[in-house]
Amino acid sequence: MSEEDRYxxxxxxxxxxxxxxxxEYEHVDRRGMVRQTLKTQSIEAAxxxxxxxxxxxxxxxxxxxxxxxxxxxxRYQAAVLRARAxxxxxxxxxxxxxxxxxxxxxxxxxQLPGKPARAEAEAVLGTAPRPAVKLSQALExxxxxxxxxxxxxxxxxxxxxxxxxxxxxxxxFIALEGDLVMSEITRDHALAFHKWYVGRLMPAxxxxxxxxxxxxxxxxxxxxxxxxxxxxxxxxxxxxxFRDLAFSGAQESDVPPFPVEWIVEKIIAPGAxxxxxxxxxxxxxxxxxxxxxPSEIANLTETTIVLDGEVPHIRIRPDGREVxxxxxxxxxxxxxxxxxxxxxxxGGFPRYRDNEGTLSALLSKFFRNNGLLPTPAHRxxxxxxxxxxxxxxxxxxxxxxxxxxGHATDRPDYGEGGGLAWRRDQLMxxxxxxxxxxx
Length: 439
Known about the structure:
By secondary structure, this protein is mainly alpha-helical. The protein has three domains: 3-125, no CATH class; 135-232, no CATH class; 260-438, Intergrase catalytic core (hpI Integrase, Chain A). The chain is built from 18 helices and six strands. The strands form two sheets. A three-stranded antiparallel sheet has the order 1-2-3, with helices on one face. A hairpin with a 2-residue loop joins strand 1 (8-11) and strand 2 (14-20). Helix 6 (135-146) crosses helix 10. It is elongated and about 90 Å long.
């Protein structure tokens, strides 16, 4: 028999899976021969079912000779696979007894042969114990199997940042309560974790605590992991011990905008940014008249920087990365110092592409050390807020302002928010003067 049809035996019109127990497993599996009707007359369907049974048997035999944790994991996976080959969804016996009507239970029993081996019984009746999974292991399962859509949409840098943020919150819980088995996490653990974050928000010594957003993110990561993990393994109704515990994440203080005079006299004045490398310097200039987030400028490419044609502009698009929101996708005309900066960087900023964390740290340190922040509350991000205020004070249309900032509106979206030429003409009303010696 060809390799393609291994373990397949035809009896009359029907195909069967027939496989001898490998010699190395005969001492732990006394079945000798494994026989299973595939309930199909189609060779193509038989091959697909054979593949699942083959994988299930390999997992099962591995479970018989491996260590405790690996044994439990392989045994459970084998039961899930075997149930799938029998056109059943694997369910724990407790769930079958609680949820399935008697007829459904009898249907499952009918799938068993006259004298079922343990492997078949576990698959059909759901008696294979679920392997114990620790919180740290659940997090890796989340990255590998659950967060597929997140991973698909993000660039390598964004995915790395996403994972680090998740690991930080999970790491806080593990440092406080230990790397618990998921099924052993209780409401008391959740309450203790919540109380720990409250203590960090409002330290007993009166010192400044962490931001509410930090507590919200860290605690929320653990709550979400718990819920997503159990939904993934089919226990949608399991009560989440972290339920109804949360933090508002309210912003303690808004980042204020730069005054217009400050931008002109301190930031785009000749020589003001001479201490920055060329790419970082041009990114700052590009932010001034576009209001873009630093990450949006840093990840522009030659395909999203459009300098030819009647209206030079930039196109904020995913381009291999996840954008913050759907409304963040937009086209922004280039004027003033921002146009000149991108003429000098038509291919974008490879040094900081998918590496905006490094850019943010550099700009924050440079602005702070060179007297470019009017108050301790200001940030380089204040350029974006200043752009929004300048548009408002310049009388630009509300919907245009929302479009250029990448903000959603509560009005129906009936078009592109005005043509590029019209948007450029509106922006010219608020364009700041700059000296050619700036560059």
